[in-house]
Each structure stands twice: as structure tokens, then as C-alpha cells.
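User: quick one - fold this with zinc ion bound?
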Amino acid sequence: MKTRLQVFHYRCGKCRQRYDALHLPDSHYGLFLMRTPIDGELAILDALHDEVYDEVDTILKKLPETRGMSALKLSDLLQGVFSVACDPSASGCEYSIVAEAACPGCGAADSVSWVASEPPVIRELQLESPTHKNWLRLSASGKISAVRRRVASRK
Ligand SMILES: [Zn+2]
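Assistant: Sure. C-alpha cells for the protein plus zinc ion:
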């Protein structure tokens, strides 16, 4: 899918290196940019038309761990754990909806700050959707345990 992305200027809080990363210029409901934090590979997720996104959502809502969780927290958690259902990138890394673009200097991703390019610098890229081949080979119970492990590892 041809995707318009905006350049954001980053600064690493650890080693002070400056670098650029791409983001969706504005929010479209259900549209997410996925990235591999270190290599900066990108994929585009149209969650409204991705059956696996629905499937993970349904599994998540049935888990005892999410009982009583607000809709907002549940959707944050869904975005956080969705990588579990996506095949790795060409370089073998995991795509994530929530991962920040890591610093190319020191690899840190937890202390970066950024500003959007202004006026907006737009790049148009051809991005693929994440695939789910490994996920689709799992049994129903295998899927549930995979999601539970992810939920547990986020606490
Ligand atoms: Zn750094």
C-alpha cells in the first residue's frame, strides 16, 4: 500500500545522537505503522481489515488477566501484544506497533525525544501489511498461550 509518512527528528537522550524516523502524518482510525526498532523496517497495518487483529483482540478479552480492564487499556494492550501474531521482517526482527525508532548510535529506544518536521517533510513509501503465517499454523490453544505469555511479559 502506498503510504504517506512524515519525517520526525529524533534526539537520543543517552548519547545525544540526532536521527530521523518516519511516522504516519495524522491518525487514521485503525491504521498503524509497525516498525522493527533497530533496523527501521516498516509495515502498515490496516487493523479494520486484518482478521488476525480481531482474533487477538477476542482472545485478549477472554483472558482472566484482562478482566475488568477499561476499553482504553485493552486497546493499548492489544497494540502492545499484537507482534506475537506477526511474522518477522526480512531481517528476522519483530515488527511492533508501539516500538520507538531506536537510536542508531547506541540502540537506546527508551529515552528518545522527537519533533515533527515543520513544514512537514513527507516521504511516500510502498509498504506491505504484516503477514501471519506462523500465527495461522498455531492451534487455538497455542494462540491463547502465546498471547498470555506476551501479556505476562509486559508486566
Ligand atoms: Zn543513542
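One thing worth noting: The radius of gyration is 16 Å.
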